[in-house]
Amino acid sequence: MSDAETYGELAAHGPYGVRPGHALITMVEPHPGHEYAYNRWYEDDHYYAGAMAMPWMYAGRRWVATRDLQELRTPEKSAVAQPVTAGCYLSTYWITEGRYDAHMKWTVAINKRLNRDARVYHDRTHVFTSFQDHETTVYRDGAAGPRDFHALDHPYAGLVLQVVDCAGPAERAALLERLAARELPRRLAGSPAAMVTVFRPTPLPGDRMTYVKQVEGVDTRLTLLWFLERDPRACWAEHFADLDGLAGAEGRVELVAPFVPTVPGTDRYVDQLR
């Protein structure tokens, strides 16, 4: 069977909804002196060849933390980023619900090919990279406004990445229930955040690329993405500076990190990273 015929067979069965059942969330630090080259590689090649061209990865957006945004991060001692300012670029991608396994087969194979063809930029460090399963989305305005499947295409002015580690699986389940039912609706009300998507990490396959470390906290971690309608610098103190207390008794917030969207095809913000 030819490639074209195989594509026809694959499209004829299996899930094909629009819900973001899975995500790739990857925070990366280019090595000093490689900021421009890394950004051009990612913008001009990897965002497409290493992500958006892949089956079932249907939306993506890049985000950047300039130095002033990095300095807003908490806590000072983080289990995710050492130092907490590490990881000035963040990329977020949605994957069709139920298509994680099929997507992973492709992504492992294509990244091996890209590496073999010298199309992987190695002067960078993966600070926080994981595929994640969607748990819930909480909206500020109920049924009004963009849905979570729109979130990476809607022109949001900022994003806050929050990572929470719990003591164990039971504590994570309790925290998730509290967040969805009470804490997130309360914090969203009247805030510049339109929605929060909540994910839990899934382990990477054993044949992943060696420069990507295995995922931590598979049974104990939650990742929250806060989508903002205002620049985080303009509303940080009032709405987000206290997010490190979100976990309560169930765990510990290990990272609260604000970003603004990159401008595709440009080097905007690259000179503001250090």
UniProtKB/TrEMBL annotation:
In Swiss-Prot or TrEMBL terms, this protein is called Uncharacterized protein
**Species this chain originates from:** Streptomyces roseolus
Q: What is the lineage of its organism?
A: Bacteria, Bacillati, Actinomycetota, Actinomycetes, Kitasatosporales
